[in-house]
């Protein structure tokens, strides 16, 4: 009986252990299924992300290709524009040099014409004989004439130009000419002052001097008449007092 009881107890223990092991196996199987499901989900996400990465790589390659083509086109365009700009600057410098040389030649021709032209005869003015009292009381100051200012300025300009030119060119048959600055054409909105021709300035100075001489003659004549009237009035008053 005791052995039978021991066997029964052993069987009960074995069945309990089997049930425990079976429960643990079921739990492990459930956990394994969950892990497999998670792995399948992760694999699907990984495949989706790999597809997205491939699409992004393709788009980046396409953008890089377009960027390189645009860069190549723009570099070619900049080189073409630089060559055109260089040609235009060279043409502008050449035209400025031609214009400056033409102005110099025209200026020299005008100076030669002014030298060859005879001096204009002065306008006949009526002689003015002021009284000695007027000449003693108010001496008139006559300004010196400035007709040779334009010639002296042109001569000074040519002398400065000669200093900037080598000796073998100065002693040559042609007159030296200064090269204009081509950098003026790099700034299209830069203000350049207009140069007035020297012959107008000389004519204006000559006209101003003639007008000043006429004004001085008129003022002297008016002063002489006023002095004569004053002397006449003083003489008449003294005669009346004597009588």
Automatic annotation (TrEMBL):
Residues 156-172 have a biased composition (Basic and acidic residues). Residues 102-178, 197-222 are annotated as: Disordered. Residues 102-118 have a biased composition (Basic residues). Residues 206-215 have a biased composition (Acidic residues). InterPro entries: CCDC74A/CCDC74B/CCDC92 (IPR040370). Residues 11-38 form a coiled coil. The keyword Transferase does not apply. Keywords: Coiled coil. PANTHER family: COILED-COIL DOMAIN CONTAINING 92B, COILED-COIL DOMAIN-CONTAINING 74A. This is Coiled-coil domain containing 92B. It comes from Sinocyclocheilus grahami.
């Amino acid at each position: 009986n005791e052995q039978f009881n021991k066997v029964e107890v052993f069987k009960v223990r074995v069945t309990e252990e089997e049930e425990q092991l079976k429960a643990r196996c079921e739990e492990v199987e459930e956990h394994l299924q969950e892990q497999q499901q998670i792995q399948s989900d992760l694999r699907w996400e990984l495949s989706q992300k790999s597809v997205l990465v491939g699409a992004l790589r393709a788009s980046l390659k396409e953008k890089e290709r377009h960027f390189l083509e645009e860069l190549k086109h723009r570099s070619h365009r900049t080189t073409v524009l630089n060559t055109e700009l260089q040609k235009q600057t060279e043409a502008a410098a050449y035209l400025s040099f031609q214009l400056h040389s033409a102005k110099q030649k025209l200026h020299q021709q005008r100076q030669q014409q002014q030298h060859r032209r005879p001096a204009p005869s002065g306008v006949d003015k009526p002689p003015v004989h002021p009284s000695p009292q007027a000449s003693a009381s108010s001496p008139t100051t006559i300004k010196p004439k400035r007709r040779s200012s334009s010639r002296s300025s042109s001569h000074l300009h040519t002398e400065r130009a000669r200093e900037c030119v080598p000796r073998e060119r100065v002693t040559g048959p042609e007159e030296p000419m200064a090269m204009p600055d081509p950098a003026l054409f790099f700034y299209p909105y830069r203000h350049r002052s207009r140069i007035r021709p020297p012959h107008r300035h000389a004519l204006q100075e000559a006209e101003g001097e003639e007008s000043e001489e006429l004004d001085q003659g008129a003022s002297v004549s008016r002063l002489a008449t006023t002095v004569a009237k004053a002397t006449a009035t003083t003489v008449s008053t003294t005669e009346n007092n004597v009588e």
